[in-house]
Design a protein that fits this description.
The protein is of the alpha/beta class. The chain is built from 17 helices and 11 strands. The chain is globular.
């Protein structure tokens, strides 16, 4: 049952080489090509793939492909917690840095605000309004070097006749914060989030970019995260996820305001596909995963009501946040060889599927146990090969090793490696 499959969260698990990426690609290919009636052009499916290994571009050549060079995200839409995680050294726990940062972000938001004066007074740290990080940097430098005139004059010595000054209360105490902020702003790898384009992109442009409503409309948006630095991966995933969740929330409100008798929450529902989900939402309390865990857990708990559902893919299901995994209603379990992962999946599946679960270690590539609301009884199914295929095929080592020695252009590889 396609409706019951897609309108509840989905988990697809399997060891490396079990056919997980091919299975996901096949399912999504079927979804974007199925049609009710005779019409030309795209159907109404909307799917966003968080692709961490650059696998899916080859499987969806007509997709809206967004990588580190074309992705533009508005840093000013980050939450206060995410902003502090990005720009303040949380290990030091320096309240001076936090207070100055908060104060200057609010001041910059107000300075760039062009609305009514009454609304301007209500602007706070979490207001989703543009602010300029350079405003914050300039203010921090001034506070860090502030000297206050005491009103007295030197009576003798080399400074005779000059006014006496004393250092401000935060003189020299913001140096680490300033260095951290400068390093982030000068890091070309973060241009997609902190560059000039991020200041000027509108909310409408951001949403169109993410769900395929740009110049080339597409059912599939592939967000290639392979070039995103690890230290901002969680914040990047969190921001995109939150924007897409809030699209569903506000679109539902818009539809009900337009027609109070509306029964359908969302007539343009989204499926968010998190490839290698254990990298964004691990079963861990470390601060570097906090942002993405909060956003994705919120979607897992509330997203279905607003037409935003999840497809989680992982080769290590035992490492995924239990809060999120427990919200999945449909499971595709491909071959799993790790005993911890097998036991974890067994606990989540219904008792009636016990005998099938024992076969997980011996499933062939493309075979999987399908359990959930979408099927009448738990079954072992074989998923057909997808066409075109994702870039995750096994490499024929021995066949390649048998061929004649190949020369490598090491300089070209280095240039690609260091490309900014």
């Amino acid at each position: 049952n396609g409706n019951k499959f897609f309108n509840k969260h989905i988990a697809i698990v399997g060891s490396t080489g079990s056919g997980k990426s091919h299975s996901i690609a096949k399912i999504l290919q079927e979804a974007i090509h199925c049609k009710n009636g005779e019409y030309t052009g795209l159907n109404n499916s909307h799917i966003v793939i968080f692709d961490i290994h650059s696998e899916y571009k080859s499987a969806f050549p007509a997709a809206n492909y967004i990588d580190i060079s074309t992705l533009v995200l508005p840093y000013w839409m980050l939450t206060s917690d995410e902003l502090q995680e990005l720009f303040i050294d949380t290990e030091v726990n320096d309240h001076n840095q936090r207070n100055v940062f908060k104060q200057e972000v609010i001041r910059s938001r107000k300075n760039h605000f062009t609305g009514e004066p009454e609304a301007k007074e209500k602007i706070h740290f979490d207001s989703p309004l543009m602010f300029d990080l350079n405003d914050v940097l300039i203010a921090a430098r001034e506070i860090n070097t502030l000297e206050i005139d005491t009103g007295e004059i030197y009576a003798s010595g080399p400074k005779k006749g000059q006014p006496k000054t004393t250092q401000g209360s935060l003189y020299g105490k913001l140096t680490n914060f300033i260095n951290r902020l400068e390093n982030k702003l000068n890091d070309k790898r973060l241009d997609f989030l902190l560059g000039d384009r991020s200041k000027n992109i509108t909310f409408e442009e951001t949403l169109k970019q993410l769900i395929g409503y740009g110049e080339n409309k597409s059912n599939i948006s592939i967000i290639d995260l392979s070039g995103v630095p690890f230290d901002v991966l969680s914040i990047t995933v969190s921001l995109i996820s939150r924007i897409l969740f809030e699209y569903g929330y506000y679109y539902k409100r818009f539809r009900y305001a337009k027609n109070p008798d509306e029964k359908l929450n969302n007539d343009v529902p989204l499926l968010l596909v998190y490839e290698e989900a254990h990298k964004y939402v691990p079963n861990s309390d470390l601060s570097r995963y906090r942002a993405s865990k909060q956003s994705i857990e919120r979607i897992a708990k509330e997203g279905r009501k607003y037409g935003v559902t999840l497809l989680l893919s992982s080769q290590r299901p035992s490492e995924i946040s239990e809060t999120i995994f427990a919200q999945c209603n449909n499971f595709l379990a491909l071959r799993l060889t790790n005993p911890n992962d097998q036991n974890y999946v067994k606990r989540l599946l219904p008792d009636t599927s016990g005998s099938l679960v024992e076969k997980m270690p011996s499933l062939k590539a493309g075979e999987c146990i399908l359990v959930g609301d979408a099927v009448t009884i738990p079954s072992i199914v074989h998923i057909e090969e997808c066409d075109p295929k994702p870039s995750s095929n096994d490499i024929p080592y021995l066949d390649l090793w048998k061929t004649e020695w190949k020369e490598l252009d090491i300089s070209a590889i280095k240039d690609e490696w260091l490309k900014i």
